[in-house]
Design a protein that fits this description.
This protein is of the alpha+beta class and 268 residues long. It has two domains: 2-93, Alpha-Beta Plaits (2-Layer Sandwich), CATH 3.30.70.580; 107-239, 2-Layer Sandwich (Alpha-Beta Plaits). 22% of the residues lie in helices and 25% in strands. It is built from six helices and ten strands; from the N terminus they run βαββαβββαββααβαβ. A hairpin with a 5-residue loop joins strand 7 and strand 8. Helix 3 (134-143) packs antiparallel against helix 4 (194-206).
Length: 268
């Protein structure tokens, strides 16, 4: 029997989702908690990987068991997990439904605040900027769905069989004060640090340190820049994962501090 777990986590205290030696990670926390509750060694498969300190307001993993449990696992797992990880739903699915390979669309949101705020410091990225050129940033963002090869805007492109990513939408949002903005991008897949690298380039464009034409040249030539300036990790959220057989709205309460007055966000 296969179950999908719909979860969210604050990545501040973790070296990403994936299990790795000598590093505190979300997958290990889940596998240890489930092994304890189910009284059997438990292994899970996540919908993807996340960088250290990156958050997920929506994430899925699947778990295979021989027999269904006869107790309230949702209640028990949430009591066992630390406060920075939550399980929202446990959903029975067909045995061939795969958390990673079955996903057809993933959405990331990157939040930036340009003024110092101690309550945003761990859930949004602080960049003390004035008079960012949002018009040029918008032009650069609009280019993203028109290209598919992101070899020049990812870490270690030679490690991938292909660097093709089909971006279906990319949007820049600005709050009503102009002090906070959000970059949202959706695609069938993403490469290592791809969103943070793009965000770093957008900030350079906003400062007029990189032109829109220079940004597009990376996409055209597919030549890796000499230096990368990925944006900070804490502003990035995996915010939506969509399957042909499962499309659940994110639990926006998980990032309430950022979603408050969400109707104030306007496209640039």
């Amino acid at each position: 029997m296969r179950y999908f777990f719909h979860i969210g986590f604050n990545g501040r205290n973790y070296r990403g989702w994936q299990r790795q030696a000598k590093a505190h990670n979300v997958q290990q926390v889940f596998e240890e908690a489930l092994s304890q509750i189910l009284k059997s060694p438990t292994f899970i498969t996540g919908c993807g990987r996340t960088d250290a300190q990156v958050h997920a307001s929506q994430f899925f993993f699947h778990l295979d068991v021989r027999e269904a449990w006869d107790f309230d696992l949702l209640f028990r797992i949430n009591k066992t997990l630390p406060d920075d990880i939550a399980v929202f739903d446990i959903i029975p699915v067909a045995e061939d439904h795969h958390a990673r390979f079955g996903a057809t669309l993933r959405t990331y949101d990157y939040f930036v605040h340009t003024y110092k705020d101690p309550f945003l410091s761990q859930v949004s990225s602080l960049y003390l900027e004035k008079n960012l050129n949002f018009d040029n940033m918008k032009q650069a963002v609009a280019l993203l769905p028109t290209y598919q090869d992101y070899r020049a805007l990812c870490k270690s492109p030679d490690n991938y069989r292909t660097t093709i990513c089909k971006i279906s939408s990319a949007t820049l949002f600005l709050d009503e004060t102009g002090d906070r903005f959000r970059f949202q991008v959706s695609a069938d897949r993403f490469l290592g640090k791809m969103v943070r690298i793009i965000m770093g380039k957008l900030l350079l464009i906003g400062r007029d340190e990189l032109s829109v034409d220079e940004f597009e040249s990376y996409l055209i030539s597919r030549k890796t820049p000499e230096t990368f300036e990925p944006a900070f990790a804490q502003g990035l959220y995996l915010s939506k994962v969509t399957y042909p057989f499962l499309d659940i709205p994110p639990r926006t309460e998980f990032s309430t501090i950022l979603q408050t007055h969400s109707d104030a966000w306007q496209t640039v």
